[in-house]
Write a structure and sequence with these properties.
Layout lengths: L6 H38 L1 H16 L8 H11 L4 H29 L4 H29 L3 H23 L9 H27 L8 H35 L2 H38 L3 H25 L1 H8 L8 H7 L3 H16 L3 H26 L1 H27 L11 H13 L3
Helix pairs in contact: 1-2, 1-6, 1-9, 1-16, 2-5, 2-8, 2-9, 3-5, 3-8, 3-9, 4-5, 5-6, 5-7, 6-7, 8-9, 8-14, 8-15, 9-10, 9-12, 9-13, 9-15, 10-13, 12-15, 13-15, 14-15
């Protein structure tokens, strides 16, 4: 079988990327989500955390305005044309600064239309700064991903969380806990994101021989035009993933939004594994699409391990939901169980989306993906409006699972048709091949 020029080397880099990114994040992210975030919610209570998560989700949904698809476009473009990194770094940083003004204008306008008061706007300003710094980090990391420098990418994928764990740990697990409030949590995020962005820029600037920002309007418009389909896709996906607590708070109050956020947290933690698998997949798929390589070999590396993880994790979590929720939220874990038992199965369609959505993105199928995402958003809102009044947070969990399943099935069927994937693509790798890939990762440097 013709696997395309350089494909074995690309596959080794993929396995290498998966190894380092997963290793770094699996050591850090669970402590952040299950230790710090749970600790913060337990310290401030459901209502305060529901207030925080509502404002956070507004800032999160519109964070696409800080990027407009530039990060995904840059990963794909640098993977295919690495010689452009210096030119694009100096120009795109200028774009990011300009987009910050647009983002602040839109989020504060929407906040005003939603009836935000002084407290909401104060929190929104801080969370908007966090979103800008996080967006900047993701863009800088996209350069490492495009160059297939996955060890650097794995470092900066967890550095912000390591800093936050250190800061929040001091606040939560010392006598300072008695005065803890939600703003301390946000200030810790600002500091951690800021330091990480500064260090990531220092590393990539040296590799790209960065000298100064370029303010070139023609370049700005070219990049934004090319990245616009990516921007729309990210906006639609962020909306159908994060709109549930916003609808809950409006329809039934802060408490249900806080319960949904608490039940959703473990799904968020497990989904991180799926996201981390997709990080090296985008540049690898992009290179293979450019060189007409076989994507089926790459899919075989990740599909079954990810499916086994997703199905196993969701079933186990559903079976032991009472114990897990009581462990996370002592004394009132029962409130989260009905929501958790539904929402946790979302990891299965999310895993499929991260594989085949990434493949379709690398193949330039943005129009179809945007149509799917728009339909998914409409479906999610409709089911939420139908179920929330009678079922509260549990109804929102069913809406999320329904929408995620629709998106996953649509992407899977489209990928099979466009890339002509055969049934052998979905067969697991043999133990011998898995052993060979792991041996190569240990013996070879990137």
């Amino acid at each position: 079988m013709n696997t395309g020029s350089g494909q074995p080397d690309i596959q080794r880099k993929l396995v290498s990327g998966l190894f380092w990114v997963l290793l770094a994040n699996l050591l850090v992210k669970p402590l952040w989500i299950l230790g710090i975030e749970v600790g913060v919610q337990n310290a401030v209570g459901n209502e305060v955390y529901g207030f925080y998560i509502d404002v956070f989700n507004l800032a999160y949904i519109f964070n696409i305005l800080l990027d407009l698809g530039v990060t995904n476009f840059n990963t794909r473009n640098i993977a295919q044309h690495p010689q452009l990194i210096g030119k694009h770094l100096s120009g795109i940083l200028g774009i990011k600064i300009c987009l910050l003004g647009v983002y602040l204008l839109v989020t504060f306008t929407v906040g005003a239309l939603m009836g935000y008061g002084c407290q909401e706007f104060r929190l929104l300003l801080l969370l908007s700064l966090c979103q800008f710094l996080n967006s900047l980090i993701l863009y800088l990391r996209s350069n490492f991903e495009g160059l297939l420098l996955f060890r650097w990418d794995s470092l900066f994928s967890v550095l912000d969380r390591l800093l936050m764990i250190a800061i929040c740990g001091c606040l939560l697990w010392t006598p300072l806990r008695n005065g803890f409030n939600i703003y301390w949590f946000v200030y810790a995020q600002v500091i951690a994101y800021g330091l990480t962005a500064l260090l990531a820029f220092a590393v990539i600037a040296r590799k790209a021989q960065f000298r100064r920002l370029r303010w070139n309007c023609a370049f700005f418009f070219v990049i934004l035009r090319k990245s616009a389909p990516f921007a729309l896709l990210v906006l639609l996906m962020a909306s159908y993933n994060r709109i549930d607590p916003i609808l809950l708070r409006r329809l039934v109050g802060d408490a249900d939004a806080g319960i949904y956020a608490g039940a959703f947290r473990l799904l968020d933690a497990l989904t991180m594994v799926c996201y981390l698998v997709s990080v090296p997949l985008l540049p690898v798929f992009s290179k293979l699409c450019k060189t007409s390589g076989q994507v089926s070999d790459v899919i075989r590396i990740v599909f079954w391990p990810l499916m086994l993880f997703a199905v196993g994790a969701s079933v186990l979590c559903a079976l032991f939901a009472d114990s897990i929720m009581e462990l996370l939220y002592p004394g009132h874990g029962w409130q989260y169980v009905p929501v958790f038992r539904v929402v946790i199965f979302g990891i299965i369609p999310i895993s499929i989306t991260y594989i085949f959505g990434t493949l379709l993105t690398a193949g330039g199928r943005l129009r179809q993906l945007n149509i799917f995402a728009a339909c998914t958003l409409l479906l999610n809102v409709a089911v939420n409006l139908l179920l929330i009044p009678s079922m509260g947070a549990t109804g929102s969990a069913w809406a999320s699972l329904t929408a995620q399943s629709f998106m996953a099935l649509a992407q899977l069927l489209l990928a099979i048709r466009i890339f002509r994937l055969s049934t052998t693509t979905f067969l697991p790798m043999s133990p011998r091949n898995i052993y060979r890939e792991l041996t190569l990762i240990i013996k070879n440097k990137e």
